[in-house]
Amino acid sequence: MPITTEFEYLKPKDMDEALHVFSLYRDKARALAGGTDLVVHLKENLARPEVVVDIKGLPELAGLGLNGGTLRLGALVTFSDLIASPLIKGKFPLLWEAALTVASVGVRNRATLAGNICSAVPSADSAPALTVYEAEVLTRGLKGERRIPIAGWFTGPKKTALLPEEIVTAIELKLPVKKHAGCYIKLSRYEGEDLAQGGVAALAFADNTYRLAACALGPTPARCPRTEAVLNGNKLGEKLLAKAKETILEEVFPIGDIRSSKEYRLHMTQIMLGRALATAVARLFGKGPKYGTENIC
Amino acid sequence: MKTHNIRFKLNGEQVSLGVEPSDVLLDVLRGRLGIKSPKSGCDRGDCGACTVLLNGRTIRSCLALAVEADGAEITTLEGANGRQWTQKLQKTFHAKNAFQCGFCAPGVILSATELLEKNSRPTAHDIKEAIAGNLCRCTGYEPIVEAIAETVKGK
């Protein structure tokens, strides 16, 4: 399928040049990294930019590393980079587990984490993990840098807090100080490549506090603070889990669509919550299944 | 639109040509450079029929702009014979009748090549995960998974 939209292609060599282009063209400019969403949107005329700015030549956006307890993931880091990184697998295993569920190898080799949250679809697999790690999104425009907590990043389906003259430069995650373990459960129609019908991520801490977030169960990926409040301070048990399962239905708002009905999503939200919590807690005590091995099917 | 003159290595040989910003890599490979192993299937990254290697890693050539190939190394099945596993995979697929219409085969072989280059002792799960993005409408996948496993047996 050819692309019928006409646009110019620029590949700036330094950040200043790139930011000037975005400042000039604003929402008529689109950043190109992996292109796995953008090229589809160009083909389907969902994006009609005047200029496509290939940001792969900007060295500031490359690489990932842990420095003083803060993990910096450059905007060009792909899902395959995350999966191949012993640092991510060892220190941020929930993000690693979520990365494994994204599309397929050939897409993950190009698709970036930053692109995933910029596309901001409700089913973004990376979002629940980033949310419970309380990530921050670093953006830059000619006027300077901003640091946006992930909780304020997703402003609607396919909408973010990014300004038209800005680009995302990196995503930062603080390594939780307390002992913890996590689990991401993705519900899909079959094992292998599929969009999430729903997803739940849980982080469980040794002091019986919990962080929960969901995707594809509302207009944006979101934290589940009410359910966390029910759980916090308590050891996970049957009664507590039953109460948590009731509570989470107050803070997810799934729709019915081609992939599943609203009722099915609500039912499975409770199942995913139970599995995610049970797995995270088991992992906390060194007993759970290895990260990335347990599948919903 | 401004035409961009790009140069890249295609199956070991330098090529240079002018492309428009909106030219898709798959269309340039097939339509202008005579490379027919990558196929146009879903045209949106879901089916894997257009798989090529970009700097050694599989990508969906239907989701890459041709202009992005400038300075890169692109290998399609036509030029992958020198890679460690590709011909062995092809021979095993042939011997085990692991594809039927053949439309998905170039993509499957390249995905399997990438897998075996990283992991020459894959489990059945590793194999299924590696080819999860390559849809086959004929075989039901079992012969494909078996052929990939057979290729590395005893190696």
Describe the structure.
The complex is a heterodimer of chains A (297) and B (155). By secondary structure, chain A is an alpha+beta fold. Chain A folds into three domains: 8-57, Uridine Diphospho-n-acetylenolpyruvylglucosamine Reductase, domain 2, CATH 3.30.43.10; 59-174, Uridine Diphospho-n-acetylenolpyruvylglucosamine Reductase, domain 3, CATH 3.30.465; 180-284, CO dehydrogenase flavoprotein, C-terminal domain (Enolase-like, domain 1), CATH 3.30.390.50. Helix content of chain A is 32%, strand content 23%. Chain A has helices at residues 15-25, 38-43, 79-84, 86-91, 93-100, 105-108, 113-119, 126-132, 225-231, 238-248, 262-284, and strands at 8-10, 29-32, 51-54, 64-67, 70-74, 136-141, 144-149, 154-156, 159-160, 167-174, 180-187, 198-205, 210-215, 222-223. Chain A has a five-stranded antiparallel sheet with strand order 4-5-10-6-7. Chain A has a four-stranded antiparallel sheet with strand order 11-12-13-14, with helices on both faces. In chain A, strands 1-3-2 form a three-stranded parallel sheet, with helices on one face. In chain A, helix 2 links the parallel strand 2 and strand 3. In chain A, helix 5 runs antiparallel to helix 8 (126-132), helix 9 (225-231) packs antiparallel against helix 10 (238-248) and helix 10 runs antiparallel to helix 11. The model of chain A has no long low-confidence stretch (mean pLDDT 96). By secondary structure, chain B is an alpha+beta fold. Chain B has two domains: 4-79, Ubiquitin-like (UB roll) (Roll), CATH 3.10.20.30; 86-152, [2Fe-2S]-binding domain (DNA polymerase, domain 1), CATH 1.10.150.120. In chain B, strand 1 and strand 2 (13-19) form a beta hairpin. The A-B interface holds A 1-9, 32, 35-36, 39-40, 42-43, 52, 54, 56, 80, 103-107, 109-110, 191-193 and B 1-2, 4, 21-24, 27, 40, 43-46, 48, 51, 54, 57-60, 62-65, 67-68, 107, 111, 114-115, 128-130, 132-134.
